[in-house]
Amino acid sequence: MTPHEWDAATYDRVSEPQLQWGREVLDRLSLRGDERVLDAGCGSGRVTAELQSRLPRGRVVAVDGSAAMVARAREALGPGAEVIESDLLDLELEEPVDAAFSTATFHWILDHDRLFARLHAALRPGGRLVAQCGGEGNVAGFLAASRRVAAREPYRGLLDDVSRAWRFAAPDETAWRLEAAGFVDVRCWLSEAPVVPPDPPAFLTSVCCGPHLERLPAPLQDGFVEDVLAELGAPPVLDYVRLNIGARRAESVA
Ligand SMILES: C[S@@+](CC[C@H](N)C(=O)[O-])C[C@H]1O[C@@H](n2cnc3c(N)ncnc32)[C@H](O)[C@@H]1O
Questions:
Q1: Quick one: which atom of ligand 1 is closest to the CA of 8?
Q2: Nearest C-alpha to atom 21 of ligand 1 is from which residue?
Q3: Is 171 inside a domain boundary?
Q4: Is residue 226 domain-resident?
Q5: Average pLDDT, integer, range 221-239
Q6: Are 202 and 10 a contacting pair, CB within 8 Å?
Q7: pLDDT by residue (tens digit) across 232-253?
Q8: Which residues line ligand 1 (CB under 6 A)?
Q9: Is the pLDDT of residue 127 over 80?
């Protein structure tokens, strides 16, 4: 399945929650400053820029599947970064990276076995993976509200398969998948991170409701977002649950 396209300018403007989570996850990735580090799913590059500032003698390799996000990230990161447009499921780097980092991305990818195999292949032996994405139970309240709206006219029957847009995996299954892909020292856990988003209509349009809106005809899209916001009530709390991941590619056996 092709990754879905994003409104990069709006995402860049409203992604304060993702920036905050990104900073917290970056604090778990201790760096000397001279490494090559992959940002898997760099988006518009806001979190990647923070990673880049921690690599004064190193280099960021930023990868995303959205052409609009890649264009925005190239602008934000400048010539010092390598920015690659690629589906992470097809990721192939010319040279392995010392570490792989990713935030707010893995749940947009359904095939985690293949994703972890590609990340494993991108890392040098001993290289670390530090990541966070939506996990089991993520935005359950938002999804319930959007299901209630989708069951009503004029949306009825148009959004029946939307829950297949994401994989909100549990820690145990993720740990098994990482180990099956060849990772060691695996640690996965959930954390709750409720958010009242900045500019809720723009946030829902560019982030949470992207898969819904792709399935709706243009004249229904703004109304759907308004109806979901009304269903969420005030303030519109998005009940985010994050899946945190730490792992390491095993050293080569001599
Ligand atoms: C919510 S954004 C997160 C961006 C950034 N990491 C951040 O925290 O702000 C999710 C990103 O994952 C990318 N993405 C989703 N599926 C992908 C795939 N299969 N391959 C590459 N990128 C993908 C999207 O294009 C989007 O830029």
A1: 27
A2: 65
A3: yes
A4: no
A5: 96
A6: yes
A7: 999 999 999 999 999 999 997 6
A8: 3, 6, 15, 18, 22, 41-43, 46-47, 64-66, 69, 87-89, 103-105, 108-109
A9: yes
Closest Cα to atom 13 of ligand 1 = 41
Distance 146 CA to ligand 1 centre (A): 22
Q: Is residue 61 part of a domain?
A: yes
SS (H, E, C) 106-136: HHHCCCHHHHHHHHHHHEEEEEEEEEEEEEC
Question: Is residue 227 included in any domain, yes or no?
Answer: no
Distance from the CA of 42 to the center of ligand 1, in angstroms?
6
**pLDDT digit string, tens, across residues 147-198:** 999 999 999 999 988 988 999 999 999 999 999 999 999 999 999 999 999 8
Give the CB-side neighbour count of residue 194, counting CA atoms within 13 A. Answer: 7
Strand partners, 249: 183
Domain interval for residue 38: 8-137+167-196+239-249
Q: What is the CATH number of the domain that holds 129?
A: 3.40.50.150
**For the chain, first and last CA: distance in Å?**
38
98: helix, strand or coil: strand
CA-66 nearest atom, ligand 1: 25
Q: Tokens 């994401």 belong to which residue?
A: 166
> How many structural domains does the chain have?
1
